[in-house]
Amino acid sequence: MKWKGRRQSDNVDDRRGISGGKAVIGGGVIGIIILLVNIFGGDNAKQLSPILEQLSQQQSAPTESRALTPAEVTEGEFVKTLLADNEDIWNQIFKENNLTFESPRLVLFSGQVQTACGGASSASGPFYCPSDKIIYMDMNFFEELRTKFGAKGGDFAVAYVLAHEFGHHIQTLLGTSSKMREMQEGQSEKVKNRLSVALELQADFYAGLWTHYNEKQNAMLEPGDIEEALSAANAVGDDAIQKKMQGQVVPDSFTHGTSEQRKYWFNRGFKSGDIKKGDTFAELQ
């Protein structure tokens, strides 16, 4: 991805050099449950906050600080550029639709972090907390995505993930997330999960839509970038994760969508460039 030389966002809080001790929950049953339910977080982060809060309190350690490595500094500059690209594109889309845009903040952390949605660790995966309108990312997640879940990796995998989480912020601004929660009230678990899938796939659509606009304006794509995004989307499909982690697939328990669905909706946003084509709730009924 071509990214150097563009604006970098000031809405980034880089805490990677500050650590309160790492919560060792990636191994064992608890870590797997958290990763399965909360990967690409969305509103599910809020549901897990009591568990994460308890784990954070139990496994905290004295605060330490260190200087960032040159690689981490470059990584931070890259993420700041990605956030700026999302801010600029979505500000434009909102203006085109006579809407008021508000940017989220982005927190980069290592190990564990406290949020308005509760405590979280790197095992949670990147997530958006609607209560404080902040995207939280531990960059070590992308190595896990590559080594444990078979994604190709690469810089555009990071771009896709950040654009997906930014999509959850868009859903908060548009009221989609709150409407989804209202629709879930009093419904069966199966229906609740289907609505959650619609929310997640729409965030994938928004990631594709952002890619469409950004390529049109900045010509930032390089050969293999879209394949990196689709590989990441494939790796975090509910069916792919369930098959790998528990050996069987339970469709009624899906909360994020299958690998094929996630790739389809990203591609739909990328190829159409039309926000009106992202009504996943209507099309998944």
TrEMBL record:
A single MF term (Gene Ontology): metallopeptidase activity
Alphabetically ordered keywords of this record: Hydrolase, Membrane, Metalloprotease, Protease, Transmembrane, Transmembrane helix
GO CC list: membrane
Compartments reported by the entry: Membrane
GO biological process: proteolysis
Location, primary (coarse class): membrane
Membrane topology reported for the UniProt record: Single-pass membrane protein
Chain segments annotated as transmembrane: 21-41
Highest taxon listed in the record's lineage: Bacteria
PANTHER family membership: INNER MEMBRANE PROTEIN, PUTATIVE MEMBRANE PROTEIN YPFJ
Protein name: Metalloprotease
Species this chain originates from: Flavobacterium cellulosilyticum
